[in-house]
Structure formats: C-alpha cells, structure tokens
C-alpha cells in the first residue's frame, strides 16, 4: 500500500519532488487529518512536510525507503502540530454522541457497522496520544507493518505493538466510556 | 494463561490480521474468563471499525502544486500566533536598534537606526513569505 518505492532514480530533483507530491500528498493529508482532526491544520502540516522534503531531498541518501524517510519527516511535523494543539484540550466524546453509539439494548456490535459510527471512531483517533494515533494511523490507514512503523517512529517492534494495542483500548474507552477490566 | 498474557496474545493475533487461528490456550481462557471474552469482543469491533474507516475527502487543490520557480507565496492564516510572531520579528530588532543607538554619537544615530529598522522590516516580511506547494 506504500505509494512509492524506496529506490532513488537519477531523475532531476524537481521531477522527483513532483512525483513525491503526487504520490504522497493525498496519503499524508489523510494521515494528518486523522492525527490532527482538523482540515486546515492538516493542510498546513502537509505544506510543512512537503517544504521540509523539498529542502532535504538532495541530502536523502537512500539509507532507508523513501516512504520511511518522508513519513519520519511527516510524523515530526504532525507531532509539533499536536503539541501546538495541547492548549486546546481534546475532550472525550460528547456523552450524547456516545449514547448514540449504543442502541437500546446496549449492543454496540451492530452500530459499529454504521458509517457515522466509523466516522466517530475516526475522529477519536485524534484524541489519542500523539504516538498512539501515529501508530494506529500508520498501521490501519497507511498500511505499514510493524517493522516499517518501528523504522518510521524510531522505536522497537514491541513498542509499536504496545502503542497499537493501547491505542485500540483507548479508542474503546473513548467510544464507550468503559474500560474492560482484567479478571485474573 | 492469565488475563494479561491473553490480552497481549489476542492483540498480536489481531495485528496479524487474524491470519492464523487463535491459540487453543487463548481460546480456552476466553471461554473461562468473561472479562477477557468481553475485552476480546470489544477489541475485535474496534479492529474491524478501524479497517473500515471512511475515506477522508481531499481538498480540491491538494495537488495544485505549481512547482519549480512557480512555488506559491502563502496566503498565510490571520491567526493570533502568526500575527504575534510577525510582530515580534519586527519589534525585537527595532528595540535592539533603539538601545544600540543610545550609545552612538548623534550624527550616527539616524543612519544606524534606519539600517537596523530596514533589516527588521525585511525579517518581518520574510516570516510571511513561506512557499506553499498546495494552493
């Protein structure tokens, strides 16, 4: 699902950059939107990523896949934007919205199939911690595997697993307000 | 198998796209432990929900990259932080120039002040001229 291969060609940088914009901009925007939860913020963040890529492209030595390199730059930028958003607290889901997710019998299974519920779930991604939302987005939306995510995020495979697991648990709490207890 | 081990294993199984059957030990634990059974159901629903997240509509101008020498000048946002940054970029060199000129002979003050204020204006303008690749 990775949009471009990691092999560098001998194409002029400008042509390569255009190709990067064409291949990566939509995916970066989707990722930014899921992490930041705001259209303008996402567009601004993608602008910054592309600017950084443009400035650094000549220095890219191909030590890692192009996608990995671009996503490293992107994540640093998105984390910076999330830090800026820190002063605007991200509340838990509106109780009325949360109630709407649960039908009269309290059965959420059917509700998950509905589009608005999935959109609600998508919005909750922006309410996770920055690293959790990055890992969840890279895994589910960008289609990266553990190894690639570890490389992009500069962490270990086990940490990637933990971030995704915790991310799922936190999404469940955000959606339902319930934490599943451990028995024994 | 305890609950912590089950949950860790179950999450790994989900991340493996459920490509292999769940270990019999784990399946047995889920049958015996109602909390873990509920947990597994909840995580499965989240996992399936995440795999079916609706696509984000892209801004129409996302790919309107003009490229090369035609990199667009930003129509920057008018948010408060941007105005503050721009104001600081002008005010700080202006303040520095005023302090420096206090120590200069009167004949030099105007020339040095003009030079420094021009620099401050250029710096101020530079903060608003960031190329944009998306219109």
List keywords for this structure.
heterodimer; A: 184 residues; mainly alpha; Butyryl-CoA Dehydrogenase, subunit A, domain 3; 65% helix; 0% strand; B: 135 residues; 2 domains; rod-shaped
SSE diagram, text form:
The complex is a heterodimer of chains A (184) and B (135).
Chain A: H1 13-36, H2 39-56, H3 66-84, H4 95-101, H5 115-125, H6 130-141, H7 146-153, H8 157-176
Helix pairs in contact in A: 1-2, 1-3, 1-6, 2-3, 3-7, 5-8, 6-8, 7-8
Chain B: H1 3-15, H2 24-32, H3 34-51, H4 80-101, H5 106-128
Helix pairs in contact in B: 1-3, 2-3, 4-5
Q: In which range does the helix fraction of chain B lie?
A: 55-70%
User: How many domain regions of chain B?
Assistant: 2
* Proportion in β-strands of chain B: under 5%
Considering residues with a beta carbon less than 8 A from a beta carbon on another chain, report the largest interface and each chain's count: A-B, 48 and 44 residues
Notes on the protein architecture:
The complex is a heterodimer of chains A (184) and B (135). With 184 residues, chain A is an all-alpha fold. Chain A has one domain (13-89, 99-176): Up-down Bundle (Butyryl-CoA Dehydrogenase, subunit A, domain 3), CATH 1.20.140. Helices cover 65% and strands 0% of the residues of chain A. Chain A is built from 8 helices and no strands. In chain A, helix 5 (115-125) crosses helix 8 (157-176). Chain A starts with 12 loop residues before the first helix and ends in an 8-residue tail after the last helix. Chain B folds into 2 domains: 3-51, no CATH class; 68-128, no CATH class. Chain B has 5 helices and no strands. Chain B has helices at 3-15, 24-32, 34-51, 80-101, 106-128. Chain B is rod-shaped and about 90 Å long. Classes of the chains: A mainly alpha (184), B mainly alpha (135). The interface between A and B is large, with 48 and 44 residues.
């Amino acid at each position: 699902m990775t949009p471009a291969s990691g092999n560098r060609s001998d194409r002029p940088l400008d042509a390569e950059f255009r190709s990067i914009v064409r291949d990566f901009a939509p995916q970066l925007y989707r990722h930014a939107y899921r992490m930041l939860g705001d259209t303008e913020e996402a567009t601004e963040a993608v602008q910054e990523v592309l600017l950084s890529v443009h400035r650094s492209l000549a220095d890219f030595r191909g030590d890692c896949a192009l996608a990995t390199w671009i996503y490293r730059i992107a994540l640093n930028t998105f984390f910076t934007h999330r830090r800026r958003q820190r002063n605007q607290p991200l509340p838990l889901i509106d109780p009325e919205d949360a109630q709407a997710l649960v039908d009269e019998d309290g059965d959420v299974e059917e509700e998950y199939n509905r589009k608005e519920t999935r959109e609600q779930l998508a919005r909750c991604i922006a309410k996770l911690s920055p690293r959790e939302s990055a890992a969840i987005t890279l895994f589910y939306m960008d289609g990266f595997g553990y190894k690639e995510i570890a490389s992009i995020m500069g962490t270990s495979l086990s940490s990637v697993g933990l971030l995704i697991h915790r991310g799922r648990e936190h999404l469940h709490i955000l959606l339902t307000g319930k934490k599943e207890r451990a028995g024994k | 198998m305890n609950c912590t081990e089950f949950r860790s294993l179950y999450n790994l199984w989900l991340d493996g796209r459920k490509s292999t059957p769940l270990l019999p030990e784990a399946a047995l634990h889920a049958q015996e432990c109602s909390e873990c059974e509920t947990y597994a159901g909840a995580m499965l629903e989240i996992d399936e929900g995440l795999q079916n997240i609706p696509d984000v509509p892209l801004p129409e101008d996302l790919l309107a990259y003009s490229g090369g020498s035609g990199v667009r000048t930003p129509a920057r946002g008018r948010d408060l932080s941007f105005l503050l940054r721009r104001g600081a970029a002008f005010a700080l060199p202006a303040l520095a120039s005023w302090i420096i000129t206090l120590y200069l002979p009167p004949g030099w003050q105007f020339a040095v002040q003009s030079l420094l204020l021009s620099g401050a204006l250029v710096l101020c303008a530079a903060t608003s001229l960031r190329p944009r690749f998306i219109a």
